[in-house]
């Protein structure tokens, strides 16, 4: 026992002396790596956002080819610099200070104030001054005015704090008013929607979705419009999802009530109405109550609310029963805006990932020097380039139609490609942005970097303005209503895009791939047209994907044939065309659309456990 005690004391004494020596050395040494706060001296450099216009080679090349105007280049370069120097921080503030709803004032009066950040308000002023809606209506650059406008929105979108959403609806509302006719009572509204003056500029909401349905407005709309003696209406109903609820006005659908209080069911009973959002002398909203703000996965910067319409004053814009037809132009505009935001999100995450690759060192060298990492970024780049060219071509077609220079083929293409570009780029954005976050490692998952918000906001792009399946069915309706003319226009123009590549041997694999895919798609259409509606519906999604991939391949080839194209343009076209361009034919050959497959799909999805051992609760 005494020996054990001696050893223990010796050990404790030795340990104490050792600890004292260590403390002495630590305190005496200033050059240790973990001195001071003891957290180390290394801090990873953050990715730096640079002028998005200056950094985007494809955007600049596209404009040099199609719109070589120095005024536009100067405007976009200056705007890009402002985005970096101040606007991007505004967008971040919108994310960190989302809107909140104040139902009552301190004395108990109902006020329903949606409180937004100061940066959200700055975005409105900026949008007016920069002409982010106005450019499309001033038409200073003729049929290319829409391309100019959308290029500017493409730069703005990732830094906008989601303000591009109210701009999309504002643009859509202006388009509807213009198509119906700019006259009383919406003449003043149109002037404000398209103004460059911040104190005049208005934004518009879009109040369509109700509890019963989203895209199925024909059967889901319950709101009624009660006629008034002065020719106006009062709206009564509940709007389940209203975007940019702090807007100055809105367009909405409702059913006109006849003298006996009855309404017409279905789409034929819907009319389009215009309403201003205003307050009475008591400070309360006129005919309107904000029930709550939506708690969303992303797009938190923008107020989205459930609204009770309780006698909201409104004016009917469309002919009675022509509401759905009247919003067709609005859907074209908002779907194009959606696609612009998708391509912009891809470009932004890739721009940041590219910068980060030159700053981050792992396993002894920069990420940019690791072939596998660069290969991943290259695949993202190919997707982003394809999305950009597809969106811009639809913008070109819109500009031609608005300028009166569109051919019948152009009009057919615009109708077909609008749902195609929206559904395809929406899916691309989620995949590319997700891959982009991964390229930052764990930091891509940290909210305070701002990177996860890009992915959360991207997820809405495949949902808003029609999900992928809804838009795929819209493609089928488009084909049926045109008696196939839209497909004839598609095939004709796609082949014409390939014609210029005949003298470019370097592009021959891509040309061969697209040409073969066109032939396969033509054959599919012939076979499918004799199989009935169920067969085509089963193939609708794959058909839409095939239309997007083939057409995008042709656009990339066409861009690579331009006299100032680079070897990178050629390589991008080749890489895009390596994938399965005609997915619908591949699936058809495997029998995926045959009569038995829906039953098998249902059995797979809804399989229930077979009889066997039961749990104690059973």
Automatic annotation (TrEMBL):
SUPFAM superfamilies reported for this sequence: Acyl-CoA dehydrogenase C-terminal domain-like (SSF47203), Acyl-CoA dehydrogenase NM domain-like (SSF56645)
Occurrences of domain Adaptive response protein AidB N-terminal (ranges): 50-197
Domain Acyl-CoA dehydrogenase 11-like C-terminal: 485-606
Molecular functions (GO terms): acyl-CoA dehydrogenase activity
Pfam families recorded: ACDH-11_C (PF22217), Acyl-CoA_dh_1 (PF00441), Acyl-CoA_dh_M (PF02770), AidB_N (PF18158)
Cofactor: FAD
Keyword line: FAD, Flavoprotein, Oxidoreductase
Taxonomy, superkingdom: Eukaryota
Domain Acyl-CoA dehydrogenase/oxidase C-terminal as annotated: residue spans: 321-477
PANTHER family: ACD11 DEHYDROGENASE (PTHR42707:SF2), ACYL-COA DEHYDROGENASE (PTHR42707)
Family, per entry: Belongs to the acyl-CoA dehydrogenase family.
Name of the protein in question: Acyl-CoA dehydrogenase family member 11-like
Organism expressing this protein natively: Gouania willdenowi (Blunt-snouted clingfish)
């Amino acid at each position: 026992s005494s020996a054990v005690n001696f050893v223990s004391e010796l050990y404790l004494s030795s340990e104490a002396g050792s600890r004292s020596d260590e403390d002495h050395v630590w305190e005496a040494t200033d050059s240790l790596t973990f001195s001071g706060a003891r957290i180390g001296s290394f801090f990873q450099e953050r990715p730096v956002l640079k002028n998005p216009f200056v950094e985007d080679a494809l955007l600049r090349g596209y404009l040099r080819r199609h719109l070589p105007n120095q005024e536009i280049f100067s405007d976009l370069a200056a705007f890009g610099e402002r985005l970096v120097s101040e606007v991007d921080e505004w967008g971040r503030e919108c994310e960190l200070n989302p809107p909140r709803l104040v139902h009552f004032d301190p004395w108990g009066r109902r006020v329903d104030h949606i409180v937004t950040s100061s940066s959200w308000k700055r975005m409105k002023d900026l949008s007016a001054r920069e002409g982010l809606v106005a450019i499309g209506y001033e038409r200073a650059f003729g049929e290319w005015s829409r391309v100019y406008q959308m290029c500017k929105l493409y730069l703005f979108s990732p830094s906008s704090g989601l303000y591009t959403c109210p701009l999309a609806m504002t643009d859509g509302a202006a388009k509807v008013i213009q198509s119906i006719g700019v006259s009383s009572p919406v003449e003043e509204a149109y002037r404000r929607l398209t103004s460059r003056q911040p104190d005049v500029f208005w934004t518009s909401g879009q109040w369509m979705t109700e509890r019963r349905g989203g895209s199925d407005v024909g059967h889901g709309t319950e709101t009624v419009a009660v006629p008034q003696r002065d020719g106006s209406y009062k709206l009564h109903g509940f709007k389940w999802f209203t975007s940019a609820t702090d807007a100055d006005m809105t367009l909405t659908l409702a059913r006109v009530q006849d003298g006996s209080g009855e309404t017409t069911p279905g789409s034929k009973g819907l009319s389009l109405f215009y309403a201003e959002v205003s307050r009475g002398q008591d400070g309360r909203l006129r005919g309107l109550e904000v029930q709550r703000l939506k708690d969303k996965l992303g797009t938190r910067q923008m107020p989205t609310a459930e609204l009770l319409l309780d006698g909201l004053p409104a004016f009917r814009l469309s002919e009675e029963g022509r509401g759905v037809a009247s919003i067709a132009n609005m859907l074209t505009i908002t779907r194009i805006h959606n696609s612009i935001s998708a391509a912009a999100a891809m470009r932004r995450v890739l721009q940041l990932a590219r910068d980060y690759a030159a700053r981050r060192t792992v396993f002894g060298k920069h990420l940019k020097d690791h072939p596998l990492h660069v290969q991943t970024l290259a695949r993202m780049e190919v997707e982003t380039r394809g999305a950009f060219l597809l969106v811009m071509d639809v913008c070109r077609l819109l500009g031609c139609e608005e300028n009166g220079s569109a051919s019948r083929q152009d009009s057919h293409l615009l109708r077909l490609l609008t749902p195609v570009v929206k559904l395809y780029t929406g899916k691309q954005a989620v995949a590319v942005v997700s891959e982009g976050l991964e390229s930052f490692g764990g930091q891509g998952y940290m909210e305070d970097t701002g990177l996860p918000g890009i992915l959360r906001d991207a997820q809405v792009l495949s949902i808003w303005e029609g999900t992928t399946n809804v838009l795929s069915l819209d493609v089928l309706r488009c084909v049926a209503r045109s008696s196939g003319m839209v497909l004839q226009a598609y095939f004709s123009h796609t082949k014409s895009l390939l014609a210029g590549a005949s003298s470019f041997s370097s592009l021959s694999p891509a040309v061969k791939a697209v040409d073969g895919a066109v032939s396969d798609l033509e054959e599919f259409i012939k076979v499918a047209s004799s199989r009935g509606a169920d067969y085509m519906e089963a193939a609708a999604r794959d058909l839409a994907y095939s239309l997007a991939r083939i057409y995008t391949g042709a656009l990339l080839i066409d861009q690579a044939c331009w006299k100032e194209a680079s070897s990178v343009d050629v390589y991008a076209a080749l890489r895009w065309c390596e994938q399965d361009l005609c997915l619908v034919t591949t699936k058809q050959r495997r029998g995926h659309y045959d009569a038995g497959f829906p039953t098998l799909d249902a059995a797979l999805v809804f399989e229930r456990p077979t009889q066997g051992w039961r749990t104690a609760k059973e």
